[in-house]
Amino acid sequence: MSNSVLIIDDDQSLCELLSEYLESEQFSVLSRHDGEAGLATALEEDFAVILLDVMLPKKDGFEVLKALRIEKMTPVIMLTAKGDDFDRIFGLELGADDYIPKPFNHRELLARIKAITRRIAHLTQTTKEQKMEFHGLVLDMAARSVSFKDVSISLTGTEYEVLYQLMKSAGEVVSKQALCQSVLGRPLVPYDRSVDMHVSNVRKKLAQYSDHTFIKTLRGSGYIFLAA
């Protein structure tokens, strides 16, 4: 379902409040209160977004995310402790799409969820530009897939969008600010490493298939996809 949200959090009061709020915004919400139950539901059903707490009984959020990413690329927003940079960075390394620190403003969370659902809607729109290809790397917009010399590369939706934004501006510098706005749907704030981690994840995955350097970091400026 395009408007379905799964909340995996052991704080049942928070789940009830979030469910009531999100349902008032026309989302369908399910809640699970431990990692094992949350993972099982995430694998069995399709959701637009999963809200995943780090501290969970039975399986913690990182274990859930790692297991989920083996089978599904459902967008995940990690719910992290305020000021815990390790949790944020580790979650992004494992394939989380975004994070929001607790306690959070419900409107801010809603904005993050809507940014992801808008991105999904954008990726499903038809486009006249069907494919981009550089050095054997192919991004197929119609199929929303990435491959290298016909070998499929598994990317999360956020990683796909990062690569898409860089490839469509091949040879030009794309600032972190522009990438954060276009990919995550929000302005870049000081000390936010989200964009850096998503680019790093894309680099690592591409490096498994090719020795070519596709993405170069320009310190203080942003990133450039090397077309030549």
Automatic annotation (TrEMBL):
Residues 129-227 bind DNA. This is Transcriptional regulator. PANTHER family: REGULATOR OF RPOS (PTHR48111), TRANSCRIPTIONAL REGULATORY PROTEIN CPXR (PTHR48111:SF39). Coiled coil: none annotated. GO terms for biological process: regulation of DNA-templated transcription. The keyword DNA-binding applies. The modification 4-aspartylphosphate is found at residue 53. One of its GO terms (molecular function) is transcription cis-regulatory region binding. GO terms for cellular component: cytosol; protein-DNA complex.
